[in-house]
């Protein structure tokens, strides 16, 4: 698979169809991977694709929106690309998508690769890219069933227990905003948290402000989160944000039968209003 | 002969300490280890590799109130600063003590930062030497070491039998008043070996790399979060904002980072560091050029490896240092 990725990248760069190919290369630990931008045909040889390619790359396309750019995209990356296309952050004619199938990514950290898959991958039913210009290899079989078994434990808690659970997690937050920066859905020029007028959230890194930050961000991703799980992976204090994101996703899915990122044309339910919609009221 | 604490004696001593001091120590917090005030000795994690965050927030909190004014009887009155209890920062590794020493220079050089100074003066540092090195550790290259006692009041070196005790200062000795410490014929265990990083002469080389395309290329993958600065044991940028409520004004200082987009935005719409590359260069220039130049000292890095581990896109400061040497050397030869 890796050699096919390199071949395609080399071809796109040498024919100048694109200025840059975004993919993954080996990280400095010699074991895991990191995002890589190839600008010259010979740099294509540095591209890799294996079960350590955890980084979501789609958001880098926003930086390159006015340049012809190719991207190596695994299934969750292609869902992110659809989201960015739908929300007009990138232009389809500027992007060349080299789709790769995904069997799930392994648990990795610097200098470490585990045997197990990442929790986010264990629950992901998406093994084929949902949009691509060139497919590396062949499509694989997929089970269409989505599971929310990860939410069972928090579902069993009372409202007060959940509140305490999140208070405890948010109390560790240092507001480094790595979650936002890694999120393909968080591309606002000015995030609500940085806004001064109106001043939504103060700069104090304290329970109340942290709670506002994390919950409001989750609401902004309701019906938009494509479940790459990057927010949780990059969090230095390991806040299990995907529990909150997936809780909201389940709401959207059960009420509107909608999953974000599967199409570049269908807007999320909260962005539309239909007279015959069952609002449950 | 060396002073020695068996594991049982260490716990006994910590229990006694807890009666008199606030003890801040590594504890398990969900999937991470963090420094937090402890209530009971059993909370303390003695055998940890690296905490997710350094203990710099003991002196430079994520957020703190610098002053509070309240309106009373038609007049604005300053509220007194809260009292700071005597405290012990227990269990920090030598690299984190090095980080505190690097923070001391800007914060304690006259005019000293009152808030930092008050906490620093109330705190005794009891370090724990490292038995293991992680692949991202490189403290020896920055002048430290897994058993380096510098910058600490007390160092404990773990051995299979217990802890070798090095009391380095009078403040450290005060923690052992009336406590019976054993003497034992015992050798220090061999320290773990850390990765070598070429930092010698980097200050001279750094400036040569200022205009190199390297920084913009490196910034391609940077997602400009604040993570590297926030996990760093010696990054100290902050923001200040006033909180005004009816009859009460508070000035609050919170962590900030040179990697954030708005950090250098100025009146008139200017920004001297407008791109990700310029901001990323600033990070490494502050560590290897500006800090050592301003304070006539060493690099502002301890080799703790936290930023290497935490960076979501593997911007590895050790690799950056090597590249700065290589590019700086090339530019110097061409000149």
Tell me what the structure shows.
The complex is a heterodimer of chains A (281) and B (335). Chain A is α/β, with parallel strands linked by helices and 281 residues long. Chain A has two domains: 2-135, no CATH class; 149-259, Fumarate Reductase Iron-sulfur Protein, Chain B, domain 2 (Orthogonal Bundle), CATH 1.10.1060. Chain A has ten helices and seven strands. In chain A, the strands form two sheets. In chain A, strands 2-1-3-4-7 form a five-stranded mixed beta sheet. In chain A, strands 5-6 form a two-stranded antiparallel ribbon. In chain A, helix 6 packs across helix 8 and helix 8 (207-220) packs parallel to helix 10 (241-256). The model of chain A has no long low-confidence stretch (mean pLDDT 95). With 335 residues, chain B is an alpha+beta fold. Chain B folds into two domains: 2-60 and 80-184, no CATH class; 202-334, no CATH class. Chain B is built from ten helices and twelve strands. Chain B has helices spanning 7-20, 94-108, 114-121, 170-174, 202-206, 214-220, 227-231, 276-294, 306-310, 317-334; strands at residues 2-6, 22-29, 32-37, 63-72, 75-78, 87-92, 123-128, 154-158, 162-167, 182-184, 238-245, 248-255. In chain B, the strands form two sheets. An eight-stranded mixed beta sheet of chain B has the order 3-2-6-7-8-9-1-10. A four-stranded antiparallel beta sheet of chain B has the order 5-4-12-11, with no helix packed on it. In chain B, a hairpin with a 2-residue loop joins strand 11 and strand 12. In chain B, helix 6 (214-220) packs across helix 8 (276-294). Chain B is globular. Chain B starts with a strand and ends with a helix. The model of chain B has no long low-confidence stretch (mean pLDDT 96). The A-B interface holds A 27-29, 32-37, 55, 59-60, 63, 109-111, 169, 172, 174-178, 180-182, 194, 202-206, 230, 233-234, 236-238 and B 29-32, 34, 52-53, 62-63, 134-136, 217, 220-221, 223-227, 229-231, 239, 241, 243, 252, 254-255, 257, 260, 262, 308-310, 312-314, 316, 318-319.
